[in-house]
Amino acid sequence: SSKDIIYFMEHLDSSISDVVNLQERLQKRHQARLEDVERRKEAKESSSVAEEKAEYFSSTFYGERACIEQLLSECSGTDRAEATRRLEEATNKVQQLQKFLNDSLLFLTQYNVREAQAALQQLQNSLSETREACLPQKTFSFRTRTKATEKSQKTELGSSNTPEAESGNNKVDNDNASAPPAPEQCGISNLSNEFVTKTSEEISKQHVLLTHLTNCKVRLFGSPSTLHLKHIEDCEILCGPVASSVFIDHCTNSTLAIPCQQLRTHNTTNTQVYVHVTSRAIIEDCSGVGFAPFTWSYPRLEEDFSLSGLDRDRNNWDKVDDFNWLDTGTPSPNWTVIPEGERKHNWDP
């Protein structure tokens, strides 16, 4: 009958619709599975690439560290010229190793970064100890005095650097005479309530150490090779462009202004740092550290920038890595950007 035909057709349409819907669901499920497999594959490949990069970094970094350690161990017992050459080679290799680490930060874990930084710090300490042992230099400091006193101090410095003063007699060592000029070390230490300056002639291309200073103002005009600040309290320290690294350790309630290639700050609290850094700034075990762009100026600043080799147009002053802060999604509470209205521009003593 016609009713039976109509009933049959309606159920046939419904069955066909169910089949079509089932096919669509199956197709979507299949597509979802394919996409899931592709995502898993990409994740596995990405993880594999990261692991390969980390393995390459580890083998390269620690292999190079072993070469530097071997180079430093061979400095003992050599003449001054050879020790100078090896120390300079080791210094360059340490700087290249730091750059290699900086370029690898994106795919390294925080643990790997901390381990590598600790290894670099050990190399820096070994480098300083070997330099002091093989190329001993008389540490000296200048204070702001009358012109007569300054003239007397410069005279004493000039006489202390003569071959006779270094050797204790009038004989000049032929090996030393032919040696290339080595970066020397000079420093200021154990002072309180002093205003201290050094000129470009005194610090350029030298390793400068400032230690155990309290309530002092220091002006370093020139371009040193490295700068080490240790046990600094209530001080204001301004320095010209540093060719390589600045290391700050145990600095409290102070203000610093320094251009450099790399900045490493450790155990520092309530300190403002006005910096021009072409690599990155790193802090560890610090709190209350404020950062702002370098604002100090003096007549020969541009010449010293050229001498240092720093890129005047590249300043990563606000790119700070805190090795004690592992939450990459939240800013570290241990450092801040100094607000523009609170930044210091007038550095007159």
TrEMBL record:
Domain C-CAP/cofactor C-like: 162-325
Coiled-coil residues: 20-47, 80-133
Pfam family, one: TBCC_N
Composition skew (Polar residues), residue ranges: 155-177
Major site of localization recorded for this protein: cytoplasm
Chain segments carrying region Disordered: 145-188
Keyword Cytoplasm listed: yes
InterPro entries: C-CAP_CF_C-like (IPR017901), CAP/MinC_C (IPR016098), CARP_motif (IPR006599), TBCC (IPR027684), TBCC_N (IPR031925), TBCC_N_sf (IPR038397), Tubulin-bd_cofactor_C_dom (IPR012945)
Domain of life: Eukaryota
Keyword list, A-Z: Acetylation, Chaperone, Coiled coil, Cytoplasm, Phosphoprotein
Compartments in which it is found: Cytoplasm
Molecular functions per Gene Ontology: tubulin binding
This protein's GO CC annotations: cytosol
Keyword Mitochondrion: no
GO BP, sorted A to Z: post-chaperonin tubulin folding pathway; tubulin complex assembly
Family membership noted in the UniProt record: Belongs to the TBCC family.
Record's subunit section: Supercomplex made of cofactors A to E. Cofactors A and D function by capturing and stabilizing tubulin in a quasi-native conformation. Cofactor E binds to the cofactor D-tubulin complex; interaction with cofactor C then causes the release of tubulin polypeptides that are committed to the native state.
Known function: Tubulin-folding protein; involved in the final step of the tubulin folding pathway.
Protein name, per record: Tubulin-specific chaperone C
Organism, scientific name: Gouania willdenowi
